[in-house]
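Field log, afternoon session.

UNIT: design team B
ACTIVITY: writing a sequence onto a fixed backbone
BACKBONE:
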C-alpha cells in the first residue's frame, strides 16, 4: 500500500514536478534543425507565445519569415531567414531560440 502525504508532502511535490515535465514535453514547438553542415537551430516554443496579441517577432524580422496563421506563430519561408536572432531578442517570453 502506498503512503499518502498531506497537501505539501513529497508525493505532492513529486506529482507537481512530473506534471510540469509532461506538459513541457508535450508543449508545441516549431523546430527546424537545418542540417549537419550548418548546425543552425531555429526553435519556437509556441506554448509560451502570446501570439497575435504580441507580434514583436513578426514586426522585427527583416526578411518577413515569421507570420501568424490561425492565431499561432508560423514560419513562412525558413529559406529566407538569415538567422540574425532579432526575433529571439524581441520576444518578451523567450519563446524563440536561434543557435548558430
Amino acid at each position: 500500500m502506498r503512503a499518502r502525504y498531506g497537501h505539501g508532502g513529497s508525493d505532492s511535490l513529486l506529482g507537481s514536478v512530473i506534471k510540469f515535465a509532461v506538459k513541457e514535453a508535450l508543449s508545441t514547438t516549431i523546430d527546424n534543425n537545418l542540417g549537419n553542415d550548418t548546425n543552425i537551430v531555429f526553435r519556437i516554443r509556441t506554448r509560451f507565445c502570446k501570439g497575435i496579441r504580441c507580434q514583436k517577432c513578426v514586426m522585427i524580422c527583416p526578411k518577413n519569415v515569421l507570420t501568424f496563421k490561425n492565431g499561432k506563430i508560423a514560419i513562412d519561408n525558413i529559406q529566407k531567414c538569415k538567422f540574425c536572432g532579432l526575433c529571439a531578442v524581441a520576444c518578451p517570453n523567450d519563446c524563440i531560440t536561434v543557435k548558430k
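LOG NOTE: The chain has three helices and five strands.
NEXT ACTIVITY: expression trials, pending approval
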